[in-house]
């Protein structure tokens, strides 16, 4: 049937119809050919792709042939004729691509006995068709910059001599893109002409991702971006360098050595101080949390020795009103009236037991009654001064216990109580104590029993041989500067017209230089006049002191200043006097 | 000592002259943007090469003719091929597509510029030896065996070959 139709068309001269009939019924031309064929190539990775034919079956496969441009030999690629294959790697067949060769490939479909027409790739496959890529990027951070190294691709199919650098010897370029994570902040792209690059990241921290795209400045080859390589930039990375760590540890060692030296020095100093510290000054370390009731003051052992009243001699009333009472040694005003009727602090032991009783009872009362009103209440030194006029009856006189040598113990500041009896006791019996006797030349009052309390300290110089000298002094009214005891001389000189010293109660004031004592042995009449002139002064006569050893001297004031009128005191044997003072003190 | 110094100075001068003259002896320096021409051709390559139906025939891609050219013949060969394209290929091709025509005109103008640059070289610097003459004759013979339109379209389709050859020979020479 087909042949008959062919003959008829051939006789009629319709050649077009004849060609159409032969095409439709020719074997192997039923399959459509692939629509397009193209190469996709990277460096030493050449893949031919084609589009499948429509309505292909499972048995449909494709045939590939390759032609080196300018030759007549098409090479069939049998490894590409696998069923359902739509691409084929032709790298091994196109290795000369990089050596100025061009390739042309064609593909046709085959299904059973049918084959399609060939489809030829539209463009010549040349080196210009290769898309450039890189093998990888390695990143490092150093000194605040990112250092990158680009590794070119090393395909396994490439011959050993055909490397990226050898094929593309010159004009290699790489475009670098940096992106900070998180976010999409991108830094300006940088182009470099070598495989090493650096990106300064000044004072920035975080994660940075870098990708690279190769290119050739003399070719039109396209490039592909590499995969992103990320690196984390941390501040500690900049600081924890070997140099910084070395410097840090060095300073730490030096600081530790300095501290240990200071501690050792402090310990050494403390040990030395503890060795020298007196034990009495060592205090127990107070505990911080102590209740007020539990606070214990540092214990200081204070021993109070009761005053032995008997150890102190009686003081005659005359002494109470002596001029020395106005001495400034104790700070008292010498012009002050003599003290009298002071409150007795201590009662001098009396030789007469009756007097003692009287002393113990009456004196304080009388003193209180008569003298309390006029008593200046200066109690800072324990001495109370009183006017003589207020207590005229109180005429203390010194009286000492026989054999008592403890009168010198007045240095301890114990006030002596004057005995108001008319009998002046022996003040001393050879005692070394020196008493200043500023006595008024007054006759002891009728109230001999009155006792006057001496508040304060009375210190007088004593003579060692007073008794005889005093007796002579009292009896002989004309003093002899040579023979008499200096005390008597002083007494007589005082009698000559010196104002009688105020009566010392307890503590005899030292008067101005030149102060002298008046003897108590003088007549009352002679001394009355001074008393009248100085009614405030209570002076005892020398006669009152006759029976008592008395000696005078400036205990507190230096001997130099004591210049008696007429030089009596000046003729004192200062050495003797000092010795007596020293002995009395001891 | 003085004689030695003089000898060394003369030797240095000779070497300097040789290095400078070597570049000039190899060929003229052509300053042209090859990459721009390649990009222009890349845009029309598919259309031009699609019209070439004779895949087993080539005019330029002949390894013996083009790739066997010696460095000393590069200048002569470049000048002959530029003349081939300007005098025969661009004139024989009839292009109806304006986009393709624009690209072809751009390439042709670049070839004219290069041809004038080479004509300014001294004859001694761009001397043609027989090897270069023979290679040029082969190319013309291949062009003449085909139909004019087919030959022209095929020659236009092989511009990438000619441009790659120029890029390789002249840039490698200048960087050496």
Question: Could you characterize what this model shows?
Answer:
The complex is a heterodimer of chains A (586) and B (176). Chain A has 586 residues and is of the alpha+beta class. Chain A has 11 helices and 20 strands. In chain A, strands 3, 4, 6, 7 and 8 form a 5-stranded antiparallel beta sheet that branches. A 4-stranded mixed beta sheet of chain A has the order 5-2-1-9, with no helix packed on it. In chain A, strands 13-12-15-16 form a 4-stranded antiparallel beta sheet, with no helix packed on it. In chain A, strand 6 and strand 7 form a beta hairpin. In chain A, helix 1 (2-12) runs antiparallel to helix 2 (15-25) and helix 8 runs parallel beside helix 9 (486-495). Residues 324-379, 385-459, 462-498 and 500-574 of chain A have low confidence and may be disordered. Chain B has 176 residues and is mostly helical. Chain B has a single domain, classed as Up-down Bundle (Growth Hormone, Chain: A). Helix content of chain B is 74%, strand content 0%. Chain B is built from 8 helices and no strands. Chains A and B meet through loops of A and helix 2 and helix 8 of B.
């Amino acid at each position: 049937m087909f042949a008959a139709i062919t003959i008829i068309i051939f006789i009629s001269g319709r050649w077009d119809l004849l060609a159409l009939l032969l095409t439709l019924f020719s074997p192997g031309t039923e399959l459509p050919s692939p629509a397009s064929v193209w190469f996709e190539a990277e460096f030493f990775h050449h893949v031919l792709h084609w589009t499948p034919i429509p309505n292909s079956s499972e048995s449909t496969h494709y045939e590939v042939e390759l032609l080196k441009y300018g030759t007549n030999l098409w090479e069939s690629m049998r490894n590409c004729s696998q069923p359902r294959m739509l691409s084929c790697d032709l790298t091994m067949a196109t290795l000369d691509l990089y050596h100025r060769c061009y390739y042309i490939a064609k593909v046709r479909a085959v299904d059973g006995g049918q084959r399609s027409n060939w489809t030829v790739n539209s463009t010549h496959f040349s080196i210009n068709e290769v898309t450039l890529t890189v093998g990888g990027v390695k990143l490092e951070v150093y000194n605040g910059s990112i250092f990158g190294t680009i590794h070119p691709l090393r395909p396994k199919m490439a011959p050993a001599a055909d490397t990226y650098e050898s094929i593309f010897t010159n004009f290699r370029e790489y475009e670098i893109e940096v992106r900070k994570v998180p976010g999409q902040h991108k830094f300006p792209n940088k182009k470099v002409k070598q495989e090493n690059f650096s990106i300064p990241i000044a004072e920035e921290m975080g994660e940075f991702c870098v990708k690279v795209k190769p290119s050739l400045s003399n070719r039109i080859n396209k490039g592909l971006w590499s995969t992103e390589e990320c690196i984390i930039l941390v501040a500690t990375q900049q600081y924890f360098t070997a140099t910084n760590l070395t410097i840090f540890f060095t300073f730490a060692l030096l600081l530790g050595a300095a501290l240990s030296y200071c501690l050792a020095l402090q310990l050494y100093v403390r040990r030395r101080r503890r060795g020298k510290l007196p034990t009495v000054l060592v205090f127990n370390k107070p505990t911080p949390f102590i209740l007020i009731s539990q606070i214990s003051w540092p214990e200081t052992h204070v021993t109070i020795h009761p005053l032995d009243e008997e150890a102190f001699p009686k003081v005659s009333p005359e002494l109470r009103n002596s001029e020395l009472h106005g001495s400034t040694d104790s700070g008292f005003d010498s012009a002050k009236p003599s003290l009298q009727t002071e409150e007795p602090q201590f009662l001098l032991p009396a030789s007469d037991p009756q007097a003692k009783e009287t002393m113990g009872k009456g004196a304080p009362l009388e003193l209180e009654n008569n003298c309390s009103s006029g008593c200046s209440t200066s109690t800072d030194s324990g001495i109370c001064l009183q006017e003589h006029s207020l207590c005229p009856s109180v005429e203390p006189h010194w009286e000492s216990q026989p054999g008592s040598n403890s009168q010198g113990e007045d240095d301890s500041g114990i006030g002596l109580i004057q005995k108001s009896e008319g009998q002046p006791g022996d003040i001393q019996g050879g005692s070394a104590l020196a008493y200043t006797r500023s006595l008024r030349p007054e006759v002891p009052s009728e109230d001999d029993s009155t006792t006057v309390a001496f508040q304060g300290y009375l210190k007088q110089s004593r003579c060692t041989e007073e008794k005889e000298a005093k007796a002579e002094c009292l009896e002989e009214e004309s003093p002899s500067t040579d023979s008499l005891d200096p005390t008597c001389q002083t007494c007589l000189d005082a009698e000559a017209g010196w104002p009688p010293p105020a009566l010392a109660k307890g503590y005899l004031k030292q008067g101005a230089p030149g102060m002298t004592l008046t003897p108590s042995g003088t007549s009352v009449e002679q001394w009355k006049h001074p008393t009248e002139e100085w009614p405030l002064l209570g002076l005892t006569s020398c006669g009152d002191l006759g029976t008592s050893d008395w000696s005078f001297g400036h205990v507190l004031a230096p001997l130099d200043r004591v210049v008696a009128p007429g030089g009596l005191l000046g003729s004192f044997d200062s050495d003797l006097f000092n010795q007596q003072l020293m002995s009395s003190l001891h | 000592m003085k004689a030695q110094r003089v000898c060394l100075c003369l030797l240095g001068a000779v070497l300097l002259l040789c290095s400078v003259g070597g570049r000039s002896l190899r060929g003229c320096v052509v300053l042209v943007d090859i990459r721009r021409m390649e990009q222009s051709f890349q845009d029309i390559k598919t259309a031009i090469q699609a019209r070439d139906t004779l895949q087993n025939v080539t005019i330029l891609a002949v390894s013996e003719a083009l790739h066997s050219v010696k460095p000393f013949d590069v200048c002569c060969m470049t000048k002959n091929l530029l003349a081939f394209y300007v005098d025969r290929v661009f004139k024989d091709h009839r292009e109806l597509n304006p986009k393709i025509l624009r690209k072809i005109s751009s390439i042709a103008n670049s070839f004219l510029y290069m041809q004038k640059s080479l004509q300014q070289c001294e004859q001694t610097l761009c001397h043609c030896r027989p090897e270069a003459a023979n290679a040029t004759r082969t190319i013309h013979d291949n062009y003449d065996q085909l139909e004019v339109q087919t030959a022209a379209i095929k020659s236009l389709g092989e511009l990438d070959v000619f441009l790659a050859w120029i890029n390789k020979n002249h840039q490698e020479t200048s960087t050496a």
